[in-house]
Amino acid sequence: MRGKICADYYATGDYFRQKDYRLKRLIVRPVTRRRIVSKERSGIETLSQTRQISVAYYLEYQGTRHRVCHSFFLKTLCLSDRAVMTDIDGKTVSDTFSKMDCRGRQPSVNKTDDEHRQTVKYHILSFPTVVESHYCRKDTQRLYLDSKLTIARMYELYVEKCKEFHDEYQPVSATVLFCSVL
Q1: Nearest to 132 by CA among 148, 154, 147
Q2: Are β-strands 53-61 and 64-68 bridged in parallel, bridged antiparallel, or unpaired?
């Protein structure tokens, strides 16, 4: 039954539909009762560190709605606790999710800019491609680099070329060159 519930959940497909699916199965209330526990035992220093909300989790199967525990809910839908907390933070009065999906909107911090990538591409294309394929000459017209030329040697030549032409130009890493070769 849990497998069917999980399959139905992922069949919705859309990011916002999945968020709404989860929110319809949660009841969020302020904490109504607090137990007094000693500081040493709880490890909580201030009231701001205590829970402010209580969440009830429900799953629907066999035509009825059943209350389940937190871990059962998360494991059935293959979710993390963070996903549920994000849902609750973005919930509107009508129990729908209103926050914008910000995944993939921030620029990559380690992306190599196009100018550097173009320089690497021109460097790779500057090597002569005169060797034909030994095994499939009749099937292809591809030409290959000399077998003595390694990627490490190509990178060394690239770094030398960068130093020779552009003192302020910082060469890209060997990984970027390697990925460009492939």
Answers
A1: 147
A2: antiparallel
User: pTM (2 decimals)?
Assistant: 0.49
Element of type H or E holding 133:
none
Neighbours of 180 (CB within 10 A): 15
Please count the residues of the chain. 182
Closest C-alpha among 80, 156, 79, 147 to residue 123: 156
Angle ∠(129,133,138) on CA atoms, nearest 5: 120
Cβ(60)–Cβ(68) under 8 Å? no
**pLDDT, tens only, 40-59:** 655 555 554 567 788 899 99
Rounded to a whole number, what is the distance in angstroms from the first to the last CA of the chain?
Answer: 46
Q: Are 178 and 150 in contact (CB under 8 A)?
A: no
pLDDT digits (tens, 9 = 90+) for 110-155: 778 788 888 888 888 888 877 666 666 667 767 777 778 888 888 8
* Contact criterion met (CB below 8 Å) for 55 and 79: no
